[in-house]
Amino acid sequence: MAYQAFRENGAPTWYDANPTAWQADILESGLIFAFVILAVSFFVILPGIRGKEKIFTFIRVTLSLYIGAVIILTNWTYTWETAQIHTRTKYKAGTGHEIEAEIGVHMGLRGINITLKGTPEKQLNETINYNEHFSWEWEQGRLGFGPFAGRFNREYREAQFRGLPLPILWIAEYFTFDGEGIRWGRHYRQAGWYSHILMWLCFPLWVLTNILFFVLLSYGANFLMLTGTCMIVANIIWATLRNPLELKIPWEDGIMEFSYGGSFYITLITGIFCVVSGIVIRLLDLRFPNALTTFFGVDVLQDANEVLDADTDDAATSNKGREMHEMDGEPSTSNAGRPKPGEPMRPPAHAQALETSIEEEEEGDDEELYMAPAPSPPIQNKYVKRKSRGLTIFQKSRRRRAPPPTPQDEPDEMYVNTGRKSYRGDKNCDYTAVSSFNGATPDDVSIRMN
Fold first, then answer.
1. In Å, how far from its chain's centre is CA 295?
2. 64-117 residue pLDDT tens
3. Direct distance between the N- and C-terminal alpha carbons of the chain, in angstroms, rounded to an integer
4. Peptide bond into 289 cis (omega under 30)
């Protein structure tokens, strides 16, 4: 018997439909949740930051996410323009019943929401609580309600077939007129179309602003001002194109008049805030660059100086190493020092080093065998912290210091060096180095051991 409850004629349990007016937009709720997750993720890491940088990071993250959330949410919300009235009106066609209801209209960039809520909700043996959406996206379409008409007209005709209450159809009908100067639907659609394009343009500009604040603060300030300018222009377009004639809908107890909603004012205030903030950052970058870089936690000019110093040190080290490498007797890949056709062969670097060392040992001179060329004066760093010019690592000089000149070779002559030196304490070595470079081989060196 328990399995037969709520069943008729042995069929599965049947649950009747329970329509509910749901005014919250699922897409809007999802976008809010996404930005809340980003904010919480950044706020979790704040305790790991030391000193004043924790406060600076909190301010930067909060303001940046606020601007991004306003750009995305106002592009989809339906509170750019609103109207509301409490009146007594007819309920449905074909009946003479009247109801007391609260009627509201919420307009966005892509359509309108019309709400009808009875006061009280239980009237005429039913619950009066409706929320219907009509969209004017895509093309305007042909005049009328046929298959080639605009989306708004086709949705209005479907609402008539469904038998929606008369107050909802009465409001939607005002947006289906398109002729003789009465074109509220066309004008609102055009205003929403251009405004939503500019709001979409604000989103990549906001992303670039966040990136440029880690590269060059002046560029980030410029893009922040550009973002705010696009938001203000979107407000101007909505206010000017939406309707040359004010839309007013009469009812039994008054006239419904439309006014700007929360999305319009939030977008306008945020746009002005972005422009003012960009100007302030630009001025601080010129007047107080150190304080500004401390607030943003980035100093790209200091990084550029470090890179330039490292490049200079690497160039000097490589030149010195190449010269020492050639002096040790290893062949050089350059053509410097090679004799031209018809000229006598000059001694190699290792033979000259051997002869020079023998002479210095005889004279008792303790000077080094090789003296590196005097270092050139340090390169004047042109990339000092001049915040007013905004130099970065991408503008550093590509020129490097020229290598030192090749040492001149000695003239061709006969070298005969003899000397005696104690070797290992008990043996004497008699060095006789005879080199003739006019036809003789470079390695013609004889060492006689005693």
1. 19
2. 999 999 999 999 999 999 999 999 999 987 777 889 999 999 999 999 999 999
3. 127
4. no
